[in-house]
């Protein structure tokens, strides 16, 4: 496999806890195959496109979304995520989250980072997850996002100017719809070399197997 570059489109939403876990699993998978050059491209997905730009109160939103029999399902998922988090080096503070943001602005920031520097995009992705789930910040707020971008090496003045407009908001939603039409209806989803997809926050070993299969298929 040496010498090949593996492109992985990683479709995520930054308020999706499985996506943070999935991102960390992909990081571990890459560490397990150091001989493989990889390019990770973060692609947008909105778990709920109906969220208004200013966001909604988190607890009321989640109670409405997971009411009745769904409440037990969410509790089970939450317990699983909180159990898996330490091994992945992450932390979920579900009970303390107060705001459910729209993620369009977060995806806009990722889109701009993608065009600048892949390392910056990788850093920003992790910072976005951490900001929402661990630091309890509003990742729909341009000021929060500008701060994240600057920490990753992006230019504050450029980001301030970009966020003063709605630039690329439509492009983000068009891109999300493109992947939805390809059949991506849940996140995270990993698309290897544009050929086949692996859905869900699967184990790093499973991702290594998928990567090897994708590279072998290209020979």
UniProtKB/TrEMBL annotation:
Record domain DSBA-like thioredoxin: where: 7-210
InterPro entries: DSBA-like_thioredoxin_dom (IPR001853), Thioredoxin-like_sf (IPR036249)
Natural source organism: Hyphobacterium vulgare
Gene3D superfamilies reported for this sequence: Glutaredoxin
Domain of life, per lineage: Bacteria
Pfam families, sorted: DSBA (PF01323)
Protein name per Swiss-Prot or TrEMBL: DsbA family oxidoreductase
SUPFAM superfamilies, alphabetized: Thioredoxin-like
């Amino acid at each position: 496999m040496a010498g090949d570059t593996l492109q992985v489109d990683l479709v995520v939403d930054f308020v999706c806890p499985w996506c943070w876990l999935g991102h960390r699993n992909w990081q571990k998978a890459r560490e397990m195959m150091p001989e493989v050059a990889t390019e990770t491209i973060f692609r947008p997905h909105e778990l709920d496109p109906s969220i208004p730009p200013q966001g909604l109160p988190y607890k009321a939103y989640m109670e409405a979304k997971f009411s009745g029999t769904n409440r037990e399902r969410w509790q089970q998922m939450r317990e699983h995520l909180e159990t898996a988090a330490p091994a992945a080096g992450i932390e979920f503070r579900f009970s303390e989250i107060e705001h459910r943001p729209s993620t369009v602005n977060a995806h806009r920031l990722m889109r701009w980072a993608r065009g600048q520097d892949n390392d910056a995009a990788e850093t920003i992705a992790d910072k976005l997850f951490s900001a929402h789930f661990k630091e309890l910040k509003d990742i729909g707020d341009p000021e929060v996002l500008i701060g994240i971008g600057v920490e990753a090496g992006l230019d504050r003045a450029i980001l301030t100017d970009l966020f003063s407009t709605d630039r690329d908001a439509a492009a983000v939603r068009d891109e999300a719809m493109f992947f939805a039409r390809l059949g991506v209806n849940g996140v995270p989803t990993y698309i290897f070399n544009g050929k086949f997809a692996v859905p869900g926050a699967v184990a790093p070993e499973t991702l290594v197997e998928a990567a090897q299969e994708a590279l072998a298929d290209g020979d």
